[in-house]
Specification:
Helix content is about 75%, strand content about 0%. The protein contains 18 helices and no strands.
């Protein structure tokens, strides 16, 4: 397989199969150090997933005890998500300069101090500041976590590593609501924001097993980093503001300014050798299409999981304590499918798995959209499980392709792009459902149909990527014959 550099930045590799070019082949960490490193990064990943999802169940209690209304108290979640997405790309570039492990562990320490501060907070504004600090630390760590996964696993097993990481994410997301509910019921609500601290401590204790810091000599890009963060703030923050009644015009205006800022930023970054916004990677079809497919798929799955609680509770009359159980088949199915899909992606072309997964997800979403008014717990469960099979077959192989095809010197940028795709997709999913609920379309089949449309786009991205790589393969074969 020839390098993309041989054809310029816009040219893809010849094929996307599980084999990796010799000049990209990485042996990974030696055993048993590899196992300790997997444990360290798994606890770190679980830490940030739990912290990001656990706060939802505590919002009513926080609002009541701090005297905040239902609308404003949701900023506890919104601020965390927004800051996290803002800092991922700038820190992924910074991580190349200071070393991935160094930035990862500093981020965990920042998170620990911010978590400790929550225990002494008695006002809502200070809580928002602490949540922003937690997200800042989480962003530092997550910006380089995918790059370290590539260094931990051998190239031939990278898909399996992505599958294991997907299991950690899915299981942590499933545990968070239950853990948060127990803490709120038995302890002070502040302990919800400290629940993930033991995971940070364990990850730090095991941190010496992580890959040694790999530094790239590069000029700092502070201006581009700040510009990138502000652009994300305008884009996603504007959309979130537009979901609230009375602020639609303000939110739309901020988003338009964000679009203009993004266009200008991309024009500037295209002229740079190692841009903060990885336009050089996105110009490679295999990575750009994988990132677009990831955003669409994360919005689709996120909007499904955000909209279903409203449908179950308000549309079907299920009590709140049963809603979580009704949603449980989705993460449980992902726990089984994700590692299998990761293992398969080391042996089967990721596009074949991705298109198959999206086709299954589309069928599942349509079945959910048009299920009977009272389908019963079993009727809901098998439809959700089928949909989860589809998304599970897509996520790990797509992530493997996005991370594995980036040059080693841009591994952190590719990881930041992957994390940004996931988190921006999840954030936009919540905003999308908020808009649908505000216009009276959130309790019917519309959210599932929108998710279905986004899944179609993700499948088309995968198919287009496959065609591009196939054409490149034919071109290379012709060139070799001519030589």
């Amino acid at each position: 397989m020839l390098r993309a550099q041989d054809f310029g930045h816009n040219a893809p590799p010849v094929r996307e199969g599980p084999r990796v070019r010799p000049d990209r082949e990485m042996d990974g960490l030696p055993i048993p150090r590899r196992y300790w490193a997997i444990a360290a990064i798994s606890f770190g990943t679980s830490l940030f997933v739990v912290d990001g999802a656990i706060a939802n169940v505590a919002l009513p209690t926080i609002g009541r005890e701090l005297g905040v209304g239902n609308g404003p108290v949701t900023n506890v979640v919104t601020v965390y998500q927004l800051v996290l997405v803002m800092v991922l790309l700038p820190f992924s570039s910074f991580g190349d300069r200071v070393g991935h492990r160094n930035l990862y562990q500093v981020g965990q320490l920042v998170f620990l101090f911010a978590s400790a501060a929550v225990l002494f907070i008695s006002s809502f504004p200070l809580l928002l500041v602490a949540r922003a600090a937690q997200a800042f630390g989480a962003g530092m760590a997550l910006s380089v976590s995918a790059a370290m996964l590539r260094e931990i696993y051998p190239a031939k097993s990278l898909g399996s590593g992505m599958g294991i990481n997907s299991v950690v994410v899915a299981s942590s997301g499933a545990i968070a609501p239950t853990l948060g509910g127990w803490l709120v019921a038995n302890l002070d609500w502040r302990w919800v924001f400290v629940a993930a601290v033991p995971m940070a401590v364990i990850s730090l204790l095991l941190g010496r097993s992580l890959p040694d810091p790999f530094k790239v000599e590069r000029k700092p890009e502070y201006f581009s980093g700040v510009w990138s963060a502000v652009t994300v703030l305008l884009l996603i923050g504007g959309i979130q503001i537009a979901t609230h009644a009375g602020t639609v015009v303000l939110g739309a205006g901020l988003s338009i300014v964000g679009v203009i800022s993004a266009v200008l930023l991309v024009r500037r970054e295209r002229q740079r050798h190692a841009p903060v916004v990885p336009v050089d990677l996105m110009a490679m079809p295999v990575i750009g299409l994988s990132a677009l497919a990831a955003v669409c798929a994360f919005i689709a799955s996120g909007s499904l999981l955000v909209s279903l609680p409203f449908l179950f509770e308000q549309g079907m009359g299920y009590p709140p304590d049963q809603v979580g159980l009704l949603l449980l088949p989705f993460p449980l199915t992902m726990l089984v499918v994700a590692p299998a899909a990761g293992w398969l992606s080391d042996r089967v072309a990721p596009t074949k798995l991705g298109v198959t997964g999206m086709a299954i997800a589309i069928v599942g979403l349509l079945l959910l959209a048009f299920m009977p008014h009272q389908p019963g717990a079993f009727g809901i469960s098998w439809r959700l499980s089928l949909t989860a099979v589809g998304f599970g077959l897509f996520f790990a192989p797509n992530s493997r392709l996005l991370i594995g095809q980036a040059p080693k010197a841009r591994a952190a940028a590719a990881g930041g792009l992957l994390s940004t795709s996931r988190l921006s997709g999840q954030t936009l999913a919540a905003a999308l459902v908020g808009i649908l609920l505000s216009v009276g379309l959130g309790l019917g089949p519309t959210p599932m149909l929108v998710a279905c449309g986004l899944s179609v786009v993700a499948a088309l991205c995968c198919f287009t990527r496959y065609q591009t790589l196939t054409r490149a393969g034919h071109t290379m074969a012709t060139l070799r014959e001519g030589s």
